[in-house]
Amino acid sequence: MSMSDKDQDFAGLGAFFDAARAHPPAPSAELLARVLSDAEAEQVWITRRAETARAAPRAGLLEQLYRLLGGWPAMAGLTTAVVAGVWIGTALPEGLSGSGEAAYLVDITPEAVFELAGDF
Amino acid sequence: MPFDAMEDLPDDALLARFAEGDAMAARILTLRLTPRVMAHGYRLLGNRTEAEDVAQEALLRLWRQAPEWRPGEAKVSTWLYRVVANLCIDRRRRARGGNLPLEAIPEPEDGQASAAEQMQDRARADALQSALDQLPERQRQAVVLRHIEGLANPDIADIMDVTVEAVESLTSRGKRALSALLAGRQEELGYVDER
């Protein structure tokens, strides 16, 4: 079948297609309301999800720290240990504060004790 | 941005605004896309109620897709034609026998159909719809996309996931079948024209 034959066969269809385009089925007001309602509901959901996603990294870090330390009791224990460590490190015992006494303790050796005993 | 200026924005730009929570974008997209989507569904299904359900479902999928939509990558209309076609195919397959009864075709709409010319046009549109309903699914889809929606063959090939040659073959066979189906009605509709 040549092209012109085809065109001739289908020529009558043009008016039907034109008519279909000229008379599209219009959506009902109810459908438009349903679609808009879906759109608005979905928009609220999308916005909420986006806000949660924006807030999530900060909350996530705090959550991770909390879990890492084992909760607030563990954090209190850790704080106590840190404070105690600082205190021990900075406040020397009173008995070790004099330089002479510190030297005495360091100089005494077992060999020296045996030599002294042999003299008797 | 004022409503008039927003109305000129392309679909994908409006969809991006929709995803950012712009209520006006939601309204414009609804008014712009619902008639198109519903009409396409009607032409594929031949049933107004089902076409409205398909339109609502297709657009709901679009709203959900909005945050992930990449502007310029795909045309919103092409995406919608594909979704509508898939939803219509699912519905037809669920329906017993795969075809809706001819009685399901709605009556011409009420309202402004007073002039003889309009009546004839409507009668033609209805006759075409009745004939379309009798075509095989793929032929119907190709003919509707090509000759009613006015899409180019490459776009139709993209929507239907076939080659351009396959589209040409489908539309050609579809039109031949329509011609045969409408042959008797042309005389009948011509008679309406003369009254």
Question: What is the topological layout?
Answer:
The complex is a heterodimer of chains A (120) and B (195).
Chain A: H1 3-10, H2 13-22, H3 29-69, H4 72-90, H5 99-107, H6 110-118
Chain B: H1 3-7, H2 11-19, H3 23-45, H4 48-65, H5 76-94, H6 116-133, H7 137-148, H8 153-160, H9 164-194
Helix pairs in contact in B: 2-3, 3-4, 3-5, 4-5, 5-8, 6-9, 7-9, 8-9
Task: Describe this entry's structure for a reader.
The complex is a heterodimer of chains A (120) and B (195). Chain A is rod-shaped, with a radius of gyration of 45 Å. Helices cover 80% and strands 0% of the residues of chain A. By secondary structure, chain A is mainly α. Chain A folds into two domains: 13-69; 71-120, no CATH class. Chain A is built from six helices and no strands. Chain B has 195 residues and is mostly helical. Chain B folds into two domains: 1-101, RNA polymerase sigma factor, region 2, helix turn helix motif (Rna Polymerase Sigma Factor, Chain: A, Orthogonal Bundle), CATH 1.10.1740; 111-195, Winged helix-like DNA-binding domain superfamily/Winged helix DNA-binding domain (Arc Repressor Mutant, subunit A, Orthogonal Bundle). In chain B, 73% of the residues lie in helices and 0% in strands. Chain B is built from nine helices and no strands. In chain B, helix 3 crosses helix 4 (48-65) and helix 8 packs across helix 9. The longest helix of chain B is centred in the C-terminal third of the chain and has 31 residues, at 164-194. Chain B is globular, with a radius of gyration of 18 Å. Chain B starts with a helix and ends with a helix. Mean pLDDT of chain B is 86; it is low at 98-109 and 191-195. The chains are: A mainly alpha (120), B mainly alpha (195). Chains A and B meet through helix 1, helix 2 and helix 3 of A and helix 3, helix 4, helix 6 and helix 9 of B.
- Named CATH architecture of the largest domain in chain B: Orthogonal Bundle
Biggest interface:
A-B, 33 and 47 residues
**Which structural class should the secondary elements of chain A be placed in?**
mainly alpha
| DSSP strand count of chain B | 0
Largest sheet of chain B: none
Question: What radius of gyration of chain B results from the CA coordinates?
Answer: 18 Å
Provide the residue-averaged pLDDT of chain A: 72
Instruction: Give the helix tally of chain B.
Output: 9
Task: State the distance separating the first and last CA atoms of chain B.
Answer: 52 Å
Oligomeric state, counting identical vs distinct chains: heterodimer
Secondary structure class of chain B reads: mainly alpha
Portion in beta strands of chain B: under 5%
User: Which stretches of chain B are poorly predicted, pLDDT < 50 over at least 5 residues?
Assistant: 98-109, 191-195
Report strand % of chain A.
Answer: under 5%
Shape of chain A: rod-shaped
What gross morphology of chain B would you assign? globular
List the domain count of chain A as a whole number.
2
Q: How many structurally independent domains of chain B?
A: 2
Give helix % range of chain B: over 70%
